[in-house]
C-alpha cells in the first residue's frame, strides 16, 4: 500500500505472505525529499524496488468496475463546513520541502489544534473518533476515510490543494469508560460528521478502479 499509494481494496492477492510483517532497515544515499501521503515519490519508488528485488514481487494492473464511495461536496453551492479550511499556497511549498513553514491560517490563527498546540501543515493526527490535520490533499483524506468506513473511497470533490480539517465523529468501537462515565459525547456517525462539519458526503457509486493483481511473491531471505 505504501509503495504504490493504494487502498486495501485495490490489492488483489491470495498469498498469506502479504499479511506477514517484516523489519526493514535501509539507508538511502544522500538526502531525500519529505514523504507525501497520496503521492508516489522517491522513497515509494525505492520500496517498490525492494519488493521486486527481495520479495520477487510480480504483478499486473487491471481496471475493474467496483462498488465504492465517492467523496463529494454536500451542497450544490460547493460551500464547505466550519471544520475545514483551505491552506495557503506556501503550505504546499512546505510539503515539497521548498519553503518555510506556512503561517497560521488567516481565518483562524493556530487552527486546528491538538493537545493545546497548533498542528503544522502536512501533519495529520488521528484519535478515537477524531481527525486533525494541519493540511492534507483530498485524495489523502479519501484514503483516511476509507480506513474508517472499511470500504473504498475515491476523491470526487474537485478540491485542489491542501486543507486543514478537524472533524469529530462516533467511532465504531466506543471509547473506554472513565470513572463510570463514557467519554463518548454522543458524537455523530462519520457520514453525518462529514456532511455537517466539513460540507462533504459519501455517495455510493460504481466506478472503474485500478487494481494491483499480485501474480507471485516469494519469502525473502535476510541479509
TL;DR of this structure?
This protein is of the alpha+beta class and 223 residues long. Helices cover 18% and strands 29% of the residues.
Please tell me about this protein's structure.
The longest helix is centred in the first third of the chain and has 13 residues, at 42-54. The protein is built from four helices and twelve strands. It starts with 10 loop residues before the first strand and ends in a 7-residue tail after the last strand. Residues 177-182 have low confidence and may be disordered. Strand 10 and strand 11 form a beta hairpin. By secondary structure, it is an alpha+beta fold. The relative contact order is 0.24. The chain is globular and about 50 Å long. It has a four-stranded mixed sheet.
Describe the secondary structure blueprint for this structure.
Blueprint: E1 11-12, H1 42-54, E2 58-73, E3 84-86, H2 89-95, E4 113-114, E5 117-118, E6 124-127, E7 130-137, H3 138-149, E8 153-155, E9 162-165, E10 177-178, E11 181-182, H4 190-198, E12 200-216
Parallel strand pairs: 1-12, 2-8
Antiparallel strand pairs: 2-12, 3-9, 4-5, 6-7, 7-9, 10-11
Amino acid at each position: 500500500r505504501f509503495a504504490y499509494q493504494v487502498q486495501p481494496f485495490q490489492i488483489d492477492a491470495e498469498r498469506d505472505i502479504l499479511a506477514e510483517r517484516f523489519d526493514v532497515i535501509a539507508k538511502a544515499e544522500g538526502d531525500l525529499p519529505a514523504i507525501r501521503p497520496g503521492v508516489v515519490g522517491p522513497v515509494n519508488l525505492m520500496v517498490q524496488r525492494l519488493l521486486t528485488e527481495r520479495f520477487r514481487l510480480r504483478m499486473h494492473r487491471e481496471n475493474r468496475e467496483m462498488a465504492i464511495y465517492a467523496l463529494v461536496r454536500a451542497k450544490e453551492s460547493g460551500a464547505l463546513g466550519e471544520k475545514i479550511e483551505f491552506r495557503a499556497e506556501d503550505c504546499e511549498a512546505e510539503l515539497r520541502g521548498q519553503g518555510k513553514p506556512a503561517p497560521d491560517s488567516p481565518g483562524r490563527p493556530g487552527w486546528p489544534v491538538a493537545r493545546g498546540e497548533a498542528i503544522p501543515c502536512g501533519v495529520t493526527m488521528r484519535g478515537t473518533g477524531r481527525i486533525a490535520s494541519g493540511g492534507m490533499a483530498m485524495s489523502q483524506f479519501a484514503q483516511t476515510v476509507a480506513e474508517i468506513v472499511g470500504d473504498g473511497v475515491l476523491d470526487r470533490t474537485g478540491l485542489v490543494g491542501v486543507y486543514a480539517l478537524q472533524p469529530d465523529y462516533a467511532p465504531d468501537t466506543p471509547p473506554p469508560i472513565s470513572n463510570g462515565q463514557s467519554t463518548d459525547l454522543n458524537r455523530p456517525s462519520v457520514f453525518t460528521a462529514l456532511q455537517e462539519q466539513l460540507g462533504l458526503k459519501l455517495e455510493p457509486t460504481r466506478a472503474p478502479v485500478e487494481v494491483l493483481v499480485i501474480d507471485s511473491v516469494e519469502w525473502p531471505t535476510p541479509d
